[in-house]
Design a protein that fits this description.
It is a single chain. Helix 6 (about 160-180) runs antiparallel to helix 8. The protein contains 12 helices and no strands. The longest helix has about 60 residues, at about 40-100. Among the domains are: about 70-155; about 245-330, no CATH class. The two termini are about 55 Å apart. The chain is about 85% helix and about 0% strand. It binds zinc ion. Zinc ion (ZN) binds near residues 6, 33, 37 and 40.
């Protein structure tokens, strides 16, 4: 009983003893007890080991931090050098434009072009946090500025016609990445893929819209909207099946394969219907080998696609079902 009582006291004192902040009296008590008690010796050993581990970790972190600081300084220096080099043509063009012309006109095109260069060279090197977001933002901004200055300089009215499709393309490429970086909560956080699909769809209709303002084609709005909407059915169908059905993976793949093949078969006739082109519709729905032409090739291609995708899709679905059943049996 007495032994246990001492042990408890000593073990309470051990951290203080180890940090050398206990009184001389406590110190002697601890040392005397340690000499006789293997239990407390073991605990003391553990405390010391932990302390070494902590010290090692601290030193390692210090070294890594120093290295990172050095690297950051180096990239910052390279970034500022590139920025410095890029300002030379800016100054030269500024002087030339002022000297030769009557004011500043094409100078802004050079400036925007160099900003575009800087956005992919200087920005990634100089921005310490959210580098990709900053780079993408600056790249998009300076690209739009470049289009705008050229449009202004040439007296064109095509700025939106050029920039909306550019933004659509950039959005298709980078939105999946960006949306992962944007902090969202609740419903939006759980449906990020849906957000990306909706966003890209809106931009596509934006492209149709700006094209509409630049064309005098008859019946443009009806034809453009119907063809776009029809073509969107395929990616949206794929997306909804893959993301929101609880089917087994191979069954999903099979359904998508069949849908893709079906789309390949009906796309030409549907477009002919939308264009209200009776001749075109008849040509792409009938096979006449006597009149071997472009339409014959189209129809044969569509049939070949169906002949490959239909059995392939069915095979995938059957395989998926079999696998699912085997899984149910074993579990
Ligand atoms: Zn003890």
């Amino acid at each position: 009983m007495e032994q246990n009582f001492n042990c408890e006291l000593v073990q309470d004192l051990l951290p203080l003893y180890q940090d050398q902040i206990c009184s001389t009296f406590s110190r002697t008590v601890v040392e005397e007890h340690l000499r006789e008690c293997p239990d407390c010796q073991r605990i003391m050993q553990k405390l010391q080991d932990n302390r070494y581990d902590r010290q090692l970790l601290q030193e390692k972190n210090n070294i890594l931090e120093a290295h990172a600081r050095k690297e950051r300084k180096k990239t910052f220096l390279i970034g500022s050098s590139i920025a410095g080099i890029l300002t030379i043509p800016v100054i030269v063009c500024l002087i030339c434009n002022l000297a030769i012309g009557h004011g500043l006109d094409w100078f802004f095109i050079v400036l925007a072009a160099l900003l575009l260069t800087a956005s992919v060279s200087v920005v990634p090197l100089m921005v310490p946090e959210h580098t990709v977001l900053w780079t993408l933002g600056c790249f998009t901004g300076s690209l739009l500025l470049l289009l705008f200055t050229i449009c202004l300089y040439t007296g064109g009215n095509w700025f939106f016609l050029a920039s909306v499709p550019v933004l659509f393309g950039l959005s298709v490429l980078f939105m999946p990445y960006l949306i992962r970086k944007i902090p969202l909560s609740g419903f939006l956080a759980r449906h990020k893929a849906l957000l990306v699909m909706a966003w890209d769809t809106l931009w596509l209709y934006g492209v149709i819209l700006v094209c509409g303002f630049h064309t005098a084609a008859a019946d443009y709005w009806r034809i453009a909207l119907q063809i776009t909407t029809f073509c969107l059915l395929l990616p949206w169908g794929f997306f909804l099946i893959i993301r929101y059905t609880k089917l087994q993976t191979q069954i999903k793949a099979g359904v998508c394969t069949i849908l893709g093949g079906l789309f390949g078969v009906v796309v030409n006739p549907v477009i002919a219907l939308i264009l209200q082109d009776r001749e075109r519709f008849l040509a792409c729905t009938s096979l006449e080998f006597a009149l071997w032409n472009e339409n014959t090739v189209n129809v044969i291609t569509a049939l070949t696609i169906a002949a490959i995708t239909l059995p392939a899709g069915i095979a995938l679905i059957v395989h998926g079902f079999l696998k699912q059943r085997r899984h149910h049996h074993t579990s």
